[in-house]
Fold this protein.
Amino acid sequence: DTGVSQDPRHKITKRGQNVTFRCDPISEHNRLYWYRQTLGQGPEFLTYFQNEAQLEKSRLLSDRFSAERPKGSFSTLEIQRTEQGDSAMYLCASSQTGELFFGEGSRLTVL
Amino acid sequence: GQSLEQPSEVTAVEGAIVQINCTYQTSGFYGLSWYQQHDGGAPTFLSYNALDGLEETGRFSSFLSRSDSYGYLLLQELQMKDSASYFCAMNSGGYQKVTFGTGTKLQVIP
């Protein structure tokens, strides 16, 4: 399968714990995006990368959120000191020409 | 800032035609995309308009008017499987940041 893959698919954690999600994009895609989606809402932009460079981070994101794409291939999204409001689906997408290809997402539940 | 507006819900009859409108505000506009998302699934790309006019892909067509900051998605010969959420999304900036609207939930009824 050469699509976008995300891991883990589901994560349940206690408030205050740190969590990390991984995204493996389609190999030839140079752009990688992270979004957060809650029920009934559209994907909310978090951040995106052109190769290894992080181009923009949403001003809505607190300092508890950080993302990396160290070699321009896979990316990680870390949430520190999780809060119940962080419960959501975290979507990763990659792109080469403007069309986004999404992974199946990582669902986070914070208890 | 950047924002997109679209109706929250639309209901249409199987076999009919439905139009989902989208208005946007942004700087550095590149183009307007449309995505479909079934419940429990990931968004999938439908179409992209960088220039004014109509783009047709099978039963789906998308229109853009840059001067009016407006676009729409047209779905023809509706099928029950078209019941899903539809999102318009702006591609903006030189590196193609993509910002999504809040989505339109389409229900197709027999």
The longest strand of chain B covers residues 29-37.
